[in-house]
Every structure is written in C-alpha cells, then in structure tokens.
C-alpha cells in the first residue's frame, strides 16, 4: 500500500516540477534575461578570426539544442515559448472545466425529456474531429483575414474556440456524474429529510465531484497541447500568427507567403521550420521533444491522480458490500402465527 501511494505521489511531483520549472524559467527569461540579451550571430569565428560555421548551428555547448537560420538558440526559444504553450493550455483547460461544470449542472436540473434531445446533439461531437472543426472556425481570423485583426484578437479568439468546442461533451460527462451521485442512498435520504440543493452539493456531491473535476482539468491540459501540435502543422499558431511576403514565383509571378509564430510557441516552431527537417533535423526535434516532454509530464500527473482515486472507489465499494452482506440463518425468522392442524 505504501509503495502504491509513494509511486503515485512521485509521478505527480515529477510532472509538477517539470511544468512549474518550465513556466518559471520562461517568466525569468521574459523579464530578466531577454532585456540584456545580445543580438544573435549568423556567423561563428574562432580565436584567429577565421569563419568556422554559418547558421543554423548544430547542437553544441553554446547551442544545446542547436539554432535556427538566424542564429537564435532553440533552447532559449523553447524556454521563451513555454509560457504561451503551457500557459494557454492551462487557461483553456480551466475554461473547459468551468464551462462544462456549469453546463452539466444546468442539464442535470432540466427535465429528462429535454436531456434526451441534448444527448442526441452531443453525440455528434464525439465523432467530429476536433482539430478540423477548430481549424475551420479559427482560420478566417488567424490566416484568411489576419490583416484585419490585432494580436490580442488572434490570441483570445482561438482560445475561446478551443474552450467551446469541447464544452458539449464535457458538460454531458459532468451531468452523468451528477446523476450517479444523486442516485446514492445517502443523497436520497438527505433529500427526503428536507435538504436543499446547496446543502446536498456542499455536503454530499462536492467531495465526490471535485477529484473528478481536478482529473478532468489535468487531462484537458494534455488534450490542449496535442491540439496545439495538430493546429501548428496547419499553420494555426495559438500564440499569434504573422504572415510575411517572402518572394515571388519566377514562372507565375505570384507572391509566396510564409507563416511565422509571433510568440515562439512550440507548435509554431515545428511548422515554420518543417522544411528544414531533413538538412537540419534539430530544428524539428527540439520543439517536438519539448512537446513530448510536456505531454508526458501532464500524463504522469493525470495517472498519479487517477490511480489513488480509482483505488479509493474500489475500496469503498468493497467495504460497503462487506458491511451490507449478512448470512441468512434460522434465527433471523420469527413465527407470527402458528396454524394448528
């Protein structure tokens, strides 16, 4: 038992330390280091002033994760973009859980006839690809008509869309959990004794629902990170997208545009450097490794929370079954009236 709790707490601690360390380093870089940072160098010279390398530079002591074509260290770019990638995923997860809790509770209070219709509508979201749906809704603001929107709109609008697309499914999940909790014997007994909704939620529902909402929050952080990576490949950068005119086609004369991340968020680093994956693989491996590490840290936290919660539920269920089960013997019966023959 002690090993079980220790291993789960260790996974939670490791995941939290990684996430908190990244966010702390990103904030320190933003407000302390970046102010005094020297401009990047595209050329490297030795002690004899001889040219030894041209950007992008491969991984080395000076550039732990290599550099981009402008000589910017990928290690510093990943640290800088962590506050946008992880920070926005935390905001999206919190918004999803908050909105789904309110929606789920409202659905729970509504008549069952209305809930049946809502079930039919929400089932469609189970089979709708979230990435495609968000791309269709976000692309007009971030890509097609990006010139008519400011940076604040380009950041806030995708966040709102990412919150709303998951609200129906999560609201149904919360409603189903509330239905299960309110069917328990002690809740029914409390209602028969005159308890109102506030008392029922505070005393009976909240202790069971809060751990599940916490687990849902952690899981939604991981889901948001995965969607960020998918949208990045479609040139949708959550931290803001900047479209630049790079060149003109020699044959047709049509302009050639490229999309750049305005905040160094990790999905943008993957997409804008994807063409350099073969000649300079570190330009893709660095942000991909950062994404994988963050998702692994979030999943370790979710697993650490899920394990003890499921163990507690199974232990409680077993205890209740043992307490309610009793053998049937002859002493349990009492003769009310004896019929004489």
From TrEMBL:
One of its GO terms (biological process) is transmembrane transport. Coiled coil: none annotated. It is found in: Cell membrane; Membrane. InterPro entries: MetI-like (IPR000515), MetI-like_sf (IPR035906). The keyword Oxidoreductase does not apply. It is a multi-pass membrane protein. One of its GO terms (cellular component) is plasma membrane. Its main location: membrane. Keywords: Membrane, Transmembrane, Transmembrane helix, Transport. The chain crosses the membrane at residues 12-33, 84-109, 130-149, 155-174, 213-238, 282-305. Residues 86-302 form the ABC transmembrane type-1 domain. Belongs to the binding-protein-dependent transport system permease family. PANTHER family: OLIGOPEPTIDE ABC TRANSPORTER, PERMEASE PROTEIN, OPPC IN A BINDING PROTEIN-DEPENDENT TRANSPORT SYSTEM. This is ABC transporter permease subunit. It comes from Halobacillus yeomjeoni.
């Amino acid at each position: 038992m002690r090993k079980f709790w220790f291993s789960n707490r260790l996974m939670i601690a490791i995941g939290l330390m990684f996430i908190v360390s990244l966010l702390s380093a990103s904030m320190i870089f933003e407000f302390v280091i970046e102010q005094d940072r020297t401009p990047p160098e595209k050329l490297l010279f030795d002690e004899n002033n001889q040219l030894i390398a041209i950007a992008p530079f491969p991984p080395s002591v000076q550039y732990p994760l290599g550099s981009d074509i402008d000589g910017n260290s990928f290690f510093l770019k990943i640290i800088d973009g962590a506050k946008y990638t992880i920070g926005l995923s935390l905001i999206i997860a919190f918004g999803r859980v908050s909105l789904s809790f309110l929606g789920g509770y409202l659905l729970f209070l509504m008549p069952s006839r209305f809930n049946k219709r809502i079930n039919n509508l929400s089932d469609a979201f189970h089979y709708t690809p979230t990435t495609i749906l968000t791309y269709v809704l976000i692309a007009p603001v971030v890509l097609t008509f990006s010139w008519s929107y400011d940076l604040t709109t380009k950041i806030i609008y995708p966040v709102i869309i990412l919150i709303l697309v998951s609200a129906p499914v999560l609201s149904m999940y919360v409603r189903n959990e509330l239905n299960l909790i309110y069917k328990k014997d002690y809740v029914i007994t409390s209602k028969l004794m005159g308890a109102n909704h506030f008392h029922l939620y505070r005393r009976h529902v909240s202790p069971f629902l809060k751990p599940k909402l916490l687990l849902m929050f952690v899981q939604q952080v991981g889901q948001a990170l995965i969607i960020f990576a998918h949208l990045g490949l479609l040139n949708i950068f959550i931290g803001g997208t900047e479209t630049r005119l790079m060149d003109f086609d020699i044959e047709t004369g049509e302009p050639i545009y490229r999309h750049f991340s305005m905040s160094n968020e990790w999905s943008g680093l993957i997409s804008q450097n994807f063409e350099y994956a073969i000649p300079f693989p570190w330009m893709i491996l660095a942000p991909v490794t950062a994404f994988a590490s963050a998702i692994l840290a979030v999943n370790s936290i979710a697993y650490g929370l899920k394990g003890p919660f499921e163990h507690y539920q199974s232990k409680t269920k077993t205890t209740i079954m043992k307490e309610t089960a009793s053998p049937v013997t002859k002493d349990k019966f009492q003769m009310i009236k004896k019929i004489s023959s």
